[in-house]
Write a structure and sequence with these properties.
The chain starts with a helix and ends in a 15-residue tail after the last helix. It has a domain of 41 residues. The protein is 79% helix and 0% strand. The chain is mainly alpha-helical and 103 residues long. It has three helices and no strands.
Length: 103
């Protein structure tokens, strides 16, 4: 009887620390190796720098397109002729249209 009480008391006192250690271990594991843990931070920063590079490239393309739109709104005859030749691949009589790489 005494041994049983001693064992029950031991387990009753050990339950809270064991549960606490399990919870700390669980959250500690995911804080380091989890999907959003410290080790995933490097990968996320690399993805961020790649996305920022793409963003700057797209900003440059957007600036060029906005400039061409402004020229079209102003009625720039050279740009209008260039677009017509590019789209229609047709020139005046005796001219040959050579396609260029689109940039």
């Amino acid at each position: 009887m005494r041994i049983r009480q001693s064992v029950v008391r031991f387990f009753a006192r050990a339950v809270f620390p064991v549960i606490s250690a399990a919870v700390i271990g669980y959250f500690g594991y995911y804080a380091i190796w989890g999907e959003r843990g410290l080790l995933a931070l490097d990968k996320t920063q690399i993805q961020l720098s790649e996305a920022q590079g793409q963003l700057s490239q797209l900003d440059g393309q957007r600036g060029r397109l906005e400039h061409r739109i402004q020229l079209l709104k102003q009625g720039d005859p050279d740009l209008v002729e260039e677009l017509a030749r590019t789209q229609l691949m047709d020139g005046a009589q005796g001219q040959v249209a050579v396609p260029r790489d689109q940039r």
